[in-house]
């Protein structure tokens, strides 16, 4: 793929102030003089307002990077994965394809109660408020003042004097060069990035809930395998004990049957611990106390069956849909706007100042016409020397923009890699599962033959032990593979960016 880097040059529009001599007369006059007549200041204010209304702003204009994604996936599709376009509704609620009502309920509870999701929602509110702070700089500020003072002169003839004043002060910094507008642009992009972060958290949360649920069901399946083998090996042990008492075999066979039986028994506590941990992790993901889902998952249920077909679409669709890619792009836009914020510091700042009030030495005369005061007029300030700090800050922001672009490119590559890896794992694990199924069937037949031949005295007891150990191992691996196949479907949907559509309680289970 190829990415076109955003334009980093200052746009050549009327607001390009790289050559101040080419600027409008009022900017040149503002540099030469700080005090002008009332008429000139009125004209300056009018032209400044017209300048702002033109909408120009210094700094680079953001251009979304162009992505040239691969035409198709490198991994060979199979096992139900197809290149058909992904259905937006299916992808938004992919967990329903597993047709497990308990999982659907758990996901609904996670959307409502997960603490990381609530924290991400709070970050969105923070970003929205920060944008409001930036937007407030576009408007005038108004403040009320009031004072009452008493003063006394020193000396023998000192007298006390009172003074009273109330008033309103107003100020408005004109955004002539667009520094504030660039700041609002950056804050808006930051808000959009925080919204994408919320979606990232949601995608991860739904995937983790499903994966932990599948892990719990997998542990239950493995426990069932271990307990079934324990029962079968117990029968073998009892049969061997009878044969030893009858003098048909030696005590060695009984000891071998004992360690085979106890070895299987020793695996059950480990599996139970794993099951408890999976349930507790699931409860935490729901924002609930450990043990909150134990009763709901107490009854053993089979591992959810993956759908027969998973439409994965094409890479270009993925990059438009993945919230982490979208977030990286918004961060790049925000950082590009920050260059404009820094560039605006190179130019003069124009403000309109005004105040109106009442001032008197006698409180009873404060509201008289003679006590009225006012002042109004523009002001200009221009940083003439700062040892290159502003220009260095522009370089800092430009370097941060380059880093944001590199991060965006890296995020795109990571997204493609995750889908490719998920596709390979999805296809190959299904092949492994089929091989384990055949091996387990063969092991079951081998155990039956070994027991029959041992009973007839045709083979020694080692053949029975080997067959039973192989059966336990293969059935346990098969149970794990069943869970992995379904988990790989979840990982594939997660890699495709599914599940970030905002949910409410009524929609979570739909």
Helix content: 55-70%
Rg for CA atoms: 37 Å
Order of helices and strands: HHEHHHEEHHEHHEEHHH
Structural class: alpha+beta
Question: What count of helical segments does DSSP give?
Answer: 12
CA distance, first residue to last residue: 37 Å
Strand arrangement in the largest pleated sheet: 2-3-5-6
What is the average of the pLDDT values?
85
| E-strand count | 6
Largest sheet: 4 strands, antiparallel
Question: What sort of overall outline do the alpha carbons produce when their principal axes are compared?
Answer: elongated
Uncertain runs are 1-14, 16-39, 502-510
Strand content: 5-15%
Give your account of this protein's structure:
- By secondary structure, this protein is α+β, with helices and mostly antiparallel strands.
- The protein has helices at residues 25-32, 38-53, 88-92, 101-113, 115-136, 179-245, 251-285, 315-321, 323-343, 389-455, 461-495, 505-508, and strands spanning 81-82, 141-152, 160-174, 310-311, 349-360, 372-381.
- The strands form 2 sheets. The chain has a 4-stranded antiparallel β-sheet, with helices on one face.
- α4 packs across α6, α6 (179-245) packs antiparallel against α11 (461-495) and α9 runs antiparallel to α10 (389-455).
- The model is unreliable at 1-14, 16-39 and 502-510 (pLDDT under 50).
Structure summary:
59% of the residues lie in helices and 10% in strands. The chain has helices at residues 25-32, 38-53, 88-92, 101-113, 115-136, 179-245, 251-285, 315-321, 323-343, 389-455, 461-495, 505-508; strands at residues 81-82, 141-152, 160-174, 310-311, 349-360, 372-381. The strands form 2 sheets. A 4-stranded antiparallel beta sheet has the order 2-3-5-6, with helices on one face.
């Amino acid at each position: 793929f190829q990415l076109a880097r955003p334009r980093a040059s200052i746009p050549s529009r009327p607001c390009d102030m790289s050559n101040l001599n080419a600027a409008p007369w009022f900017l040149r006059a503002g540099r030469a003089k700080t005090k002008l007549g009332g008429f000139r200041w009125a004209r300056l204010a009018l032209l400044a307002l017209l300048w702002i209304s033109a909408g120009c702003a210094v700094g680079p204009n953001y251009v979304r990077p162009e992505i040239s994604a691969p035409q198709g996936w490198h991994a060979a599709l199979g096992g139900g994965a197809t290149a058909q376009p992904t259905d937006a509704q299916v992808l938004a609620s992919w967990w329903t394809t597993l047709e497990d009502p308990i999982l659907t309920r758990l996901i609904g509870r996670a959307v409502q109660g997960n603490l990381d999701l609530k924290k991400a929602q709070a970050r969105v509110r923070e970003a929205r408020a920060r944008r409001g702070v930036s937007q407030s700089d576009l408007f005038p500020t108004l403040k009320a003042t009031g004072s009452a003072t008493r003063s006394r002169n020193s000396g023998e003839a000192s007298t006390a004097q009172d003074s009273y004043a109330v008033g309103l002060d107003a100020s408005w910094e004109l955004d002539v060069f667009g520094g504030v507008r660039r700041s609002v642009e950056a804050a808006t992009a930051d808000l959009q990035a925080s919204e994408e972060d919320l979606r990232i958290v949601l995608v991860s949360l739904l995937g983790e809930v499903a994966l932990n649920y599948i892990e719990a069901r997998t542990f239950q399946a493995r426990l069932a395998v271990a307990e079934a083998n324990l029962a079968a090996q117990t029968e073998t042990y009892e049969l061997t004990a009878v044969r030893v008492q009858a003098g048909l075999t030696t005590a060695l066979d009984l000891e071998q049957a004992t360690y085979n039986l106890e070895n299987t028994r020793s695996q059950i506590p480990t599996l139970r611990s794993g099951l408890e941990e999976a349930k507790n992790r699931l409860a935490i993901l729901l924002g609930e106390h450990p043990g909150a889902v134990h009763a709901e998952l107490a009854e053993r249920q089979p591992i959810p069956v993956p759908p027969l077909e998973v439409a994965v679409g094409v890479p270009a669709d993925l990059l438009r849909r993945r919230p982490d890619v979208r977030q990286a792009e918004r961060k790049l836009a925000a950082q590009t706007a920050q260059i404009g914020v820094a560039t605006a510091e190179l130019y003069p700042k124009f403000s309109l100042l005004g105040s109106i009030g009442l001032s008197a030495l006698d409180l009873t005369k404060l509201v008289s016409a003679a006590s009225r005061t006012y002042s109004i007029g523009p002001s200009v300030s221009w940083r003439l020397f700062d040892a290159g700090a502003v220009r260095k800050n522009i370089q800092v922001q430009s370097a941060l923009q380059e880093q944001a672009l590199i991060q965006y490119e890296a995020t795109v590559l990571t997204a493609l890699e995750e889908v490719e890896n998920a596709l390979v794992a999805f296809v190959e694990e299904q092949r492994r599962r089929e091989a384990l199924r055949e091996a387990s069937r063969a092991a079951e037949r081998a155990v039956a033959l070994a027991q029959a031949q041992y009973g007839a005295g045709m083979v020694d007891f080692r053949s029975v032990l080997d067959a039973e150990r192989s059966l336990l191992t293969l059935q346990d691996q098969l149970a794990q593979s069943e869970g992995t196949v379904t988990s790989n479907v979840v990982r594939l949907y997660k890699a495709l960016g599914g599940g970030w559509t905002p949910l409410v309680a009524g929609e979570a289970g739909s």
